[in-house]
Amino acid sequence: MSTTLDLGLPDRAPLAGLPARVRIHEVGPRDGLQNESVTVPVEVKAEFIARLAAAGLRTVEAASFVHPKWVPQLADAEQLFPLLAPVAREYGDELRLPALVPNERGLDRALAHGVREVAVFGSATETFAQRNLNRSVAESLEMFAPVVRRATEAGLRVRGYLSMCFGDPWEGPVPVAKVVEVGRALLDLGCAELSLGDTIGTGTPGQVAALLREFAAQGTGPEVLAVHFHDTYGQALANTLTALQHGVTVVDSSAGGLGGCPYAKSATGNLATEDLVWMLDGLGIDTGVDLAALAATSAWMAGHLGRPSPSRAVRALTH
Ligand code: HMG
Ligand code: MG
Predict the structure, then answer these.
(1) Residue nearest to atom 42 of ligand 1 (CA)
(2) Consecutive sets of 10 residues in the chain, 319 residues long: mean pLDDT of each?
(3) Annotated catalytic residue, options 200, 212, 261, 272
(4) Which of 14, 190, 218, 318 is such that its CA lies 20 to 30 A from the CA of 294?
(5) What residues are paired with 157 via a beta bridge?
(6) Which domain holds residue 162?
């Protein structure tokens, strides 16, 4: 079946002031699947990750070493990593397969499976910190400190996530100063990169610009920041473009728009990687991703989940 891609669309039309290249941090196998009620067999997860790598994605967040009762879908991280050995061998250092670790127990499990990159995940709000980590914001940072230190000493790269940067389903608006304070605390622990999460997707471009300006004013430039938008209110692409205009070059997204967070009501799918790549391709920004192969992968995964992909680009390209 021929698609608009076969016709050479999207036509290239660059905009001034945008980066030449964007690194996509693919979160489908982790953020995407963690909220799915259908349990996906571990072999299917491994194939999903291999297909994402084959489509050109070079950072694929693979799993979480959290308490299995908290996120049952990801309880098979120990079984998954050995199945990823062939794809890890095929792409070598080019392919990053990070995993979430909340605490030292999680780090120990990740280290035992040769994971080379981990992420801790904090919250800008107290309510979500309690619900997601069973701790206050300050206690979570204390929990992360030895994780980041030990991981760094072991030669791992550590990413910090910060949730609820643009709105919280229990507390409402979140002060920019609070987001910057907790975000900088995560960087000060030794995280190499900070991903700013719009966990419930309520943020709009003016907020994104204001937050990035405040980080810059406090001495944190866009080179250490990533953006992580959920698309609940259809704002993710507009917010992403705003972040790119402010110098951010790392964007989180999820193949097929899978996703959500089991501990934040009203969090739906992440920005779909296909929708993102369509926009970036149109802007002439290099991602290394083969959109046709990626859309086919998401259509295949939608079959396993028993429902169509919420991504507009996947639907347009595969129907
Ligand atoms: P807790 O109950 O306070 O843990 O949970 P604890 O330290 O009191 O330990 C209780 C028991 O759990 C102990 O076992 C520990 O060994 C065990 P016992 O001694 O009673 O037999 N335990 C573990 N077992 C396996 N792996 C571990 C682990 N840790 C403790 N790592 C905890 C605290 C952090 C563990 C829990 O709250 C948890 O697992 N939370 C994870 C929640 C989660 O994964 N949420 C989704 C990811 S965040 C997200 O999606 C947002 C993001 O996408 C960005 C955005 O969108 O904003 C990143
Ligand atoms: Mg998320």
Answers:
(1) 132
(2) 92 97 98 91 98 98 97 96 98 98 98 98 98 98 98 98 98 98 98 98 98 98 98 97 98 92 69 98 98 97 90 93
(3) 261
(4) 14
(5) 117
(6) 23-318
